[in-house]
């Protein structure tokens, strides 16, 4: 640890022209004050990019690096948790790219900075129903102040977002996501967005129609979490009620295997679930999004399929999932008519 702090102290002397600083460290909260002092004392007059990631092993308050940020007006790309302290109005005047948490996002998007690229990480407290509407209004207001925004990613922090008892789930783990009303608000506030990444609550028509407000969008990455009911079957909360009416495969054939209730076939069942979501979501994109977003070139889909536990099992734990599989798909625009699937 002493060697690490010594290296930080020597940076201005060894590399006075340093333009990129990246720190990624995990340790106990008892050392936070030492880290704050070491980082905040740095003076790097040419610094343009700063990424400071600190993972604490306990629940101690995170470090405050605002003095460091305020001392480096040349920064145009920042990835850091700002902490509870406010950022000076004239700090980071050149900021174009920022990655942080929801509270940090609200601090930097005040109209004083030329931000074009935002990555916001949400945690469970950001989805708390008691503050969700207020937070939603604040987010939209902040986005309205960033008219030059072109890239927006709103992603979930894994350890805090997967909530065991949300939205009426009796077991398994539910992933919160952005709903259609929020997507509409984002489109109205920042219609010039070209790249968008979101965790979506479902693959319903309303969610895709909301994306159609982004007429300049060229690239979308959508994340989904599907919790398969114990015993198999589709995760009905993910789709419109009439989705089964259009459940034929793209080639007109039915799925060769039905692995619905066989516990030993979870991987095959998960494949079926992922293919079903892809089929439904792609159809909605072709029908409801492409006509309104002619510049769209590519859609990436990340799907996590989890299975609820058997509540009769002696190992049942409502805070856990049974099995989990990840799938990735890439849908590429072709001939201006529809999207072709690549996996």
Question: What does this protein look like?
Answer:
Residues 239-257 have a biased composition (Acidic residues). Residues 239-265 are annotated as: Disordered. The protein is α/β, with parallel strands linked by helices and 343 residues long. It folds into 2 domains: 1-81, no CATH class; 96-342, no CATH class. It has helices at residues 2-14, 32-40, 66-70, 102-108, 129-144, 158-161, 180-189, 205-211, 266-289; strands spanning 20-27, 49-56, 77-79, 97-101, 117-122, 151-156, 162-163, 174-175, 195-199, 219-228, 298-307, 324-334, 338-342. Helix 7 packs parallel to helix 8 and helix 8 (205-211) crosses helix 9.
State the low-pLDDT regions, or none.
159-174, 248-264, 315-322
Cα-to-Cα separation, first versus last residue: 44 Å
> How many helical elements?
9
Estimate the global geometry from the Cα principal axes. Answer: globular
Strand count, sense and barrel status of the largest sheet are: 11 strands, mixed
Helix content: 25-40%
Number of strands: 13
Mean pLDDT: 76
* Topology as a string of helices (H) and strands (E): HEHEHEEHEHEHEEHEHEHEEE
Return Rg in Å.
23 Å
Helical/strand content category: alpha/beta
Which strand order spans the largest sheet, edge to edge or round the barrel? Answer: 1-2-3-4-5-6-9-10-11-12-13
The total number of structural domains is: 2
Which percent band covers the strand fraction?
Answer: 15-25%
């Amino acid at each position: 640890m002493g060697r690490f702090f010594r290296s930080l102290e020597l940076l201005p002397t060894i590399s006075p022209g340093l333009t990129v600083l990246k720190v990624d460290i995990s340790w106990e909260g008892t050392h936070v004050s030492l880290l704050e002092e070491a980082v905040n004392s740095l003076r790097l007059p040419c610094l343009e990019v700063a990424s400071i990631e600190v993972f604490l092993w306990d629940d101690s308050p995170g470090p405050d690096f605002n003095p460091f940020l305020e001392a480096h007006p040349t920064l145009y790309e920042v990835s850091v948790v700002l902490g509870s302290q406010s950022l000076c109005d004239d700090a980071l005047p050149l900021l174009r790219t920022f990655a942080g948490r929801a509270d940090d996002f609200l601090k930097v998007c005040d109209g004083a900075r030329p931000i074009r690229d935002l990555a916001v990480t949400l945690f469970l407290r950001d989805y708390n129903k008691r503050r969700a509407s207020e937070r939603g209004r604040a987010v939209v207001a902040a986005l309205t102040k960033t008219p030059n925004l072109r890239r927006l990613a709103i992603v979930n922090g894994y350890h805090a977002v997967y909530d065991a008892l949300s939205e009426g789930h009796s077991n398994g783990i539910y992933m919160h996501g952005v709903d259609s009303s929020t997507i509409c608000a984002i489109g109205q506030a920042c219609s010039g967005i070209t790249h968008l990444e979101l965790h979506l609550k479902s693959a319903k028509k309303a969610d895709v129609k909301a994306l159609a407000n982004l007429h300049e969008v060229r690239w979308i990455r959508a994340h989904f979490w599907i919790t398969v009911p114990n015993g198999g079957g589709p995760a009905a909360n993910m789709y419109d009620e009439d989705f089964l009416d259009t459940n034929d495969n793209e080639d007109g054939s039915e799925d060769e295997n039905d692995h619905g209730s066989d516990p030993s076939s979870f991987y095959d069942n998960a494949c079926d679930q992922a293919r079903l979501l892809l089929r439904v979501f792609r159809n909605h994109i072709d029908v409801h999004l492409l006509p309104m977003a002619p510049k769209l070139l590519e859609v990436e889909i990340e799907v996590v399929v989890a299975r609820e536990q058997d509540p009769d099992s002696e190992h049942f734990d409502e805070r856990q999932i049974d099995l989990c599989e990840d799938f990735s798909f890439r849908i590429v625009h072709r001939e201006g008519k529809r999207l072709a699937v690549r996996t």
